[in-house]
Recover the amino acids of this structure.
């Protein structure tokens, strides 16, 4: 047979990729400009307020969480409704570091114990707080603790071939159980109040604008890194195995792949990515409490991905920014409406825009259109 | 090559009191092409499920060479060299024809191995040779979701070939095919057999005749008759089952 291999598809795809990269580069540049514009005098037309910096920094970490969800949901079909738990755990790990860094500046002035421990009558630091005064350890834990929980839950679930809605319920139960546990004072994590009143990070006072800018750039770099990592991973043969598992898992098994192992690998990676997002989030918002484990948070994050367009990576980032921008705008004048709008948005996207916002740009592109037909 | 590749002895499968397989015994030799026919509910698909590890037999022996298949899971059995084509073609629609074959290509299957996988010239040649064999070279970079029904069946057979299996189990390959596609498929399967053992489950007797192989007739989970197509078509027991008593 002659080799009249169809060249149109790769050509079109590479052009789309080029456009996408240009768009991304511009977006990253614009974001990178924000802290610089913040330094302009307040009466300048281009001045960007502190509020914009802090809220954009927060959204960047949300975008990393959205990427983590997209990797698991969009590519392998694991709809986790508990990714907020991984995010919160990453946040708690960095929170523990920040609590240790308060040192004797706390209300009770204890040189080692955080205020809540003194208040609860602790005489010495619990063993699981050891090492958290050292940043590299705390940062590593912010990735490893969520990763370990993801690996454990994934191992139990995938080995038993729990999929679909049952897996979603399981992950939702996981985050709910953790929320209840962290609300308890005797857990040693500050109970209801969580951690707050942070003073400094790596010797930099958190209240200073310079520190804010550093955290902003660190988050932006992490987002770019995460996007690059996910894009590289999904472009390998592993990425194609993931899509195959999403669409017909038992068929992949008959091809000789241990699908449970592949899913475990990706789910663990995704949990670690969510932990990273949480670790960058907490120093920027200055507080972490058990409310971050609330099931609603995880569901909201899934909606960002659905709105942006799942299985596209860029869609997850776009969704996180746009839904949160809408939320900030709407809650400034009609906070009671937000949940209705969020629910309505989810229904509308599912019905009318299954490929999400990215689908609007891509049109009938190769990935956005599951039924085919270029 | 000689001697049995696949050996089933006294295999029974009972679902809630229903005997899907009833002390079935069957031997497939190396390089043999075998057609298996039988009315609906005769146990053909259950037999394939047992061989591929999807269903565990209630009783009996299932051996592939010296391996006891009743103790192994699907992925392990697939990696031993047993490939299965399902009744309903399941190719990966979101991937291209080439990518479908690449996934099936025999190679390390772990997540890290897949992450580090680079398509070598040798692998590319093997995929191209298979594309040529199944007649889909021109569609290599089209997504599998765009293929016609017959082409999907061929792609699936191609995916089986990429696994380089010793034994191919092919479930109803020509259901819903045009006459021309059916002919093409028969020729493809005959070409494949010889190098590998092929077991074909099919309803279409004309197709089975075109295969020109030994035929096993299943009924109510047990073997009813075995021999050439002419032999079984003239067997009174078979006529009874197919035409009613």
């Amino acid at each position: 047979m002659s080799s009249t291999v169809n060249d149109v598809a790769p050509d079109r795809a590479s052009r789309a990729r080029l456009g996408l990269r240009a768009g991304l580069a511009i977006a990253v540049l614009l974001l990178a400009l924000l802290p610089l514009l913040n330094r302009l005098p307040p009466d300048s037309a281009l001045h960007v307020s502190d509020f914009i910096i802090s809220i954009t920094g927060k959204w960047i970490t949300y975008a990393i969480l959205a990427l983590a969800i997209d990797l698991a949901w969009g590519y392998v079909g694991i709809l986790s409704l508990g990714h907020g738990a991984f995010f919160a755990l990453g946040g708690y790990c960095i929170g523990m570091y920040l609590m240790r860094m308060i040192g004797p500046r706390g209300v009770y002035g204890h040189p080692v114990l955080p205020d809540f421990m003194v208040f609860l009558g602790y005489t010495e630091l619990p063993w699981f707080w050891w090492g958290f005064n050292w940043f590299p350890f705390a940062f590593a834990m912010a990735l490893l603790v969520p990763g370990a929980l993801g690996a454990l839950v994934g191992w139990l679930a995938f080995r038993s071939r729990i999929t679909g809605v049952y897996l979603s319920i399981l992950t939702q139960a996981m985050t709910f159980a953790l929320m209840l546990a962290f609300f308890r004072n005797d857990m040693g994590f500050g109970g209801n109040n969580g951690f707050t009143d942070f003073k400094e990070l790596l010797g930099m006072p958190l209240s200073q604008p310079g520190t804010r800018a550093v955290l902003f750039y660190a988050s932006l770099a992490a987002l770019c890194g995460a996007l690059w990592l996910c894009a590289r991973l999904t472009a390998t043969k592993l990425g194609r195995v993931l899509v195959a598992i999403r669409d017909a898992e038992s068929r992949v098994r008959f091809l000789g792949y241990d699908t449970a192992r592949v899913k475990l690998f990706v789910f663990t990676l995704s949990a670690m990515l969510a932990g990273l997002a949480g670790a960058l989030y907490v120093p920027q918002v200055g507080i972490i409490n058990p409310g971050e484990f609330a099931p609603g948070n995880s569901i909201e994050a899934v909606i960002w991905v659905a709105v942006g367009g799942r299985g596209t990576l860029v869609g997850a980032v776009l969704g996180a920014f746009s839904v949160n921008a809408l939320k900030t705008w709407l809650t400034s004048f009609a906070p009671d409406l937000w949940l209705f709008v969020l629910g309505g948005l989810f229904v509308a996207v599912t019905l009318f825009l299954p490929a999400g916002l990215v689908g609007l740009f891509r049109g009938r592109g190769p990935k956005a259109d599951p039924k085919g037909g270029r | 090559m000689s001697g049995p590749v696949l050996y089933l002895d006294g295999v029974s499968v009972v679902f809630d009191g229903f005997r899907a397989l009833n002390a079935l015994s069957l031997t497939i030799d190396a390089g043999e092409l075998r057609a298996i026919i039988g009315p609906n509910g005769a146990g053909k698909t259950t037999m394939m499920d047992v061989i591929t590890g999807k269903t565990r037999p209630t009783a009996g022996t299932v051996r592939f060479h010296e391996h006891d298949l009743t103790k192994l899971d699907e992925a392990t059995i697939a990696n031993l060299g047993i490939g299965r084509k399902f009744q309903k073609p399941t190719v990966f629609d979101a991937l291209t024809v080439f990518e479908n074959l690449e996934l099936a290509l025999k190679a390390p299957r772990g997540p890290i191995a897949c992450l580090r996988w680079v398509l070598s010239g040798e692998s590319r040649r093997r995929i191209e040779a298979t594309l040529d064999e199944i007649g889909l070279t021109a569609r290599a970079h089209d997504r599998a979701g765009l293929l016609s029904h017959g082409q999907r069946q061929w792609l699936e057979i191609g995916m089986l070939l990429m696994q380089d299996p010793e034994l191919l189990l092919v479930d109803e390959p020509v259901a819903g095919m045009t006459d021309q596609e059916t002919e093409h498929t028969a020729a493809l399967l005959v070409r494949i057999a010889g190098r590998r053992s092929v077991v074909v489950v099919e309803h279409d007797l004309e197709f089975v005749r075109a295969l020109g192989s030994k035929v096993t007739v299943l009924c109510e989970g047990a073997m009813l008759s075995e021999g050439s197509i002419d032999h079984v078509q003239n067997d009174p027991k078979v006529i009874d089952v197919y035409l009613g008593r």
About this structure: Chain B has one domain: 4-243. The mean pLDDT of chain B is 88. Chain B touches chain A through 39 residues (CB under 8 Å). Strands of chain B lie at 4-15, 18-29, 33-37, 59-64, 67-68, 82-85, 167-171, 197-201, 214-219, 222-227.
